User: Which sequence fits this backbone?
């Protein structure tokens, strides 16, 4: 197994989760939604679908990071593989990574409830609002899971190769610029272009 490839795949997954979360939070955030509600309502079908798609992408990618199947790229399997690898440079960092993983499992279980009952599968036992109530996850908890996962992956990277990754990609500013542009043109540019 190529551990470098494994770490790369997991980094790409958390970046995908973060970028989708950024877009979703601009649509739903208390600091942004009120500023752009007129634009969102002007293109209600588009933003309704986009809102849903970015939330589902966040949930699915966060779920994927912590699932326990051995035939997929996931953190629990990587930690087990690395525990057996004699070339791990700093065992104490790997121990810290395992502690972090244990600490964030309750947040992942909340994501798992959403994924397994509303998005990856659609349970016929619960209405969607019941699934959300059962999960009880907040936007801040999703963000915390993303941040802690970035830190966890850097612990793993440090213990394996001494390398860390700057998780500095952000989609928030681009999303705000798109909404601001739509608000400033009143949608005229799009209407003219489609005529």
Assistant:
């Amino acid at each position: 197994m190529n551990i470098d490839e494994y770490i790369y795949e997991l980094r790409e997954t958390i970046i995908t989760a973060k970028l989708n979360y950024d877009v979703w939070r601009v649509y739903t955030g208390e600091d942004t939604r009120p500023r752009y509600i007129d634009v969102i309502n002007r293109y209600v079908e588009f933003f309704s679908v986009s809102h849903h798609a970015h939330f589902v992408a966040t949930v699915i990618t966060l779920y994927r990071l912590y699932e326990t199947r051995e035939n997929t790229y996931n953190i629990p399997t990587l930690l087990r593989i690395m525990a057996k690898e004699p070339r791990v440079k700093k065992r104490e960092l790997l121990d810290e990574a395992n502690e972090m993983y244990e600490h964030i499992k309750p947040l992942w279980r909340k994501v798992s409830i959403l994924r397994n009952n509303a998005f990856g599968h659609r349970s016929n036992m619960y209405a969607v609002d019941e699934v959300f109530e059962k999960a009880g996850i907040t936007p801040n908890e999703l963000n915390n899971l993303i941040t802690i996962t970035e830190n966890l992956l850097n612990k793993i990277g440090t213990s394996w190769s001494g390398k860390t990754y700057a998780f500095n990609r952000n989609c928030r500013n681009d999303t705000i610029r798109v909404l601001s542009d739509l608000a400033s043109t009143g949608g005229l540019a799009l209407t003219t272009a489609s005529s």
